[in-house]
Q: What sequence folds into this?
């Protein structure tokens, strides 16, 4: 039997390295009749903010070559409704549940964390400092190493929970941001969020996304994500959770060889809702064929 | 309950200009679907990744019917499907037309082109309970009408160019006949957004309940991506967005804003 479990340190171990990425899996309950959610290593919830957010006007999504652009605008039900309506389902799941948090200000992040810290079932937080689709907060926290360090260090002081900072690729020097996260005392990095993307309708001359520029995701961004992962991996020692266009088992192996301790499935959940099951089968077969007994043994083993 | 399953094409016939009707053997979906629910087709395409949502146009035993028009590369591919073609699909998705909540004097279906799909299914369900609806179908020209004759409904055709039936839009045709529906009536409609806007702008008498099946670009069809929104405006609530894939595709026409 192949051991697919991974350990992200500080008490966070996953039965396998496959996480569902924030914003691509709702709160899990939407798809529970179709996917055996508990077979994920864990799920990362849709970004949660203190107050509900209605999100951006349509059109919010457009299909592009081997990918898509979205501008949802962090639409979510807000903390109160989350605790009333989603927590009962999520708290019963056997896989790990990581809550992704978005906020416009540092104090809003702290407010949300202080409330969520009372919920024993939450395995950790992923801090969204990388959303390209909101005017306040989001990416503004994630592009300057000093600003990111101050935010992350303060959140570190407020909670003992596993703390993940989700990085944006829309920067010139990803390594400096990774270093800021490590120095702040956060437990892990997840990367990458979406790349800036735009598309224009040649018949109407209008942008295909209401906010003009949105976030590009899907297989199209995989090589970018992998390159940035390699850069960050060289700069820090804390675990990195790889994200960006991963759609099949081979992609998972590639990211883990490059140094990812776990990965997240994002857009693939839209165009192949059963991807996780197919990937777990692939990992078992691949590792058996390679005569590798634990998936942990391939992490960072690419000859870079 | 929704199912990710395999379907097998039984037939794939052209029924009008660029419009096809395909029959797909998929027992679990056929047994569980209702009018206005839809299925996602998954294509083995590494460039265009989104599944494509199609309204179910009816069911025959263990088969579902899909009425579609060639508008892009995936529908062009579908037109090449032949008996025995296997495909991956997911469904049934979304909500459905509710016709049993209240008794109406008139049951009226308004279809724009291939927007007829969910209404064909609804017509079958109405027929099964002994109701013969008024079925208005409009198209640009005679060759684009997906249906020419029908025993299960009072068929009322219109074309923009007058090559068949009433000359004008399906909404103009319906308004032309409005006087004969002077009693509690239900209208179920599906078609291009411009047609739905025309219907919404026309202030129908209060004894009409109007339900619309909307179409949107969807990345997932499951309520995950939150891309397929429609703005809602109800009298006592702040405007908000609903998901066409999960909260719809059927909405009360008075609750939705179609100006986005």
A:
């Amino acid at each position: 039997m192949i051991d697919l479990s991974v350990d992200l340190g500080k008490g966070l171990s996953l039965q396998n390295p496959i996480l569902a990425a924030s914003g691509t899996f709702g709160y899990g309950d939407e798809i529970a009749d179709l996917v055996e959610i508990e077979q994920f290593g864990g799920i990362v919830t849709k970004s949660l903010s203190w107050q509900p957010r209605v999100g951006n006007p349509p059109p919010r999504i457009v299909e592009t070559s081997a990918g898509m652009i979205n501008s949802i605008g962090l639409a979510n039900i807000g903390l109160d409704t989350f605790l009333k309506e989603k927590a009962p389902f999520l708290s019963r799941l056997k896989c790990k549940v990581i809550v992704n948090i978005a906020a416009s200000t540092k104090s809003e992040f702290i407010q949300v964390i202080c409330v969520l810290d009372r919920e024993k079932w939450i395995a950790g937080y992923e801090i969204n400092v990388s959303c390209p689709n909101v005017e306040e907060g989001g990416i503004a926290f994630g592009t300057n190493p000093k600003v990111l360090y101050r935010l992350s260090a303060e959140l570190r002081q407020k909670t003992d929970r596993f703390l993940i900072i989700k990085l944006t690729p829309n920067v010139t020097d990803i390594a400096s941001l990774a270093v800021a996260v490590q120095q702040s005392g956060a437990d892990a990095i997840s990367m990458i969020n979406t790349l800036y993307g735009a598309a224009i309708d040649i018949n109407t001359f209008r942008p295909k996304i209401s906010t003009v520029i949105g976030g590009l995701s899907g297989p199209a961004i995989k090589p970018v994500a992998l390159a940035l992962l390699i850069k960050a991996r060289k700069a820090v020692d804390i675990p990195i959770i790889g994200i960006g266009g991963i759609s099949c088992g081979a992609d998972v192996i590639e990211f883990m060889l490059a140094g990812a301790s776990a990965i997240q499935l994002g857009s693939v959940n839209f165009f192949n809702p059963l991807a996780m099951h197919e990937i777990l089968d692939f990992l078992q077969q691949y590792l058996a064929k390679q005569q590798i007994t634990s998936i942990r043994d391939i992490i960072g083993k690419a000859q870079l | 309950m929704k199912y990710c399953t395999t379907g097998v094409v039984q037939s794939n016939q052209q029924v009008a200009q660029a419009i096809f009707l395909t029959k797909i053997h998929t027992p679990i979906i056929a047994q569980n679907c209702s009018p206005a629910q839809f299925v996602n087709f998954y294509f083995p395409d590494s460039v265009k990744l989104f599944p494509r949502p199609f309204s179910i146009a009816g069911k025959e035993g263990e088969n579902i019917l899909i009425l579609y028009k060639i508008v892009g590369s995936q529908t062009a591919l579908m037109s090449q499907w032949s008996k025995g073609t296997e495909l991956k699909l997911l469904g049934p998705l979304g909500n459905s037309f509710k016709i049993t909540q209240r008794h109406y004097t008139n049951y009226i279906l308004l279809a724009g082109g291939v927007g007829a799909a969910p209404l064909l299914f609804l017509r079958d369900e109405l027929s099964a309970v002994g109701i013969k609806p008024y079925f208005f179908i409009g198209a640009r020209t005679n060759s684009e009408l997906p249906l020419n004759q029908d025993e299960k409904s009072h068929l009322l055709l219109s074309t923009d160019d007058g090559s068949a039936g009433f000359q004008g839009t399906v909404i103009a045709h319906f308004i032309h006949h409005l006087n004969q529906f002077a009693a509690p009536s239900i209208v179920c409609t599906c078609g291009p957004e411009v047609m739905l806007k025309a219907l919404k702008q026309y202030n129908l008498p209060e004894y009409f309940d109007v339900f619309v099946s909307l179409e949107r670009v969807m990345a997932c069809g499951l309520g995950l991506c939150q891309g397929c929104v429609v703005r809602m405006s109800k009298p006592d609530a702040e405007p908000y967005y609903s998901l066409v894939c999960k909260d719809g595709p059927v909405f009360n026409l008075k609750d939705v804003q179609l100006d986005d």
About this structure: Chain A has one domain: 6-55+74-194+217-298. Helices of chain A lie at 78-91, 106-116, 145-158, 174-184, 222-235, 249-257, 268-271, 275-289. Residues 275-289 of chain A form the longest helix (15 residues).
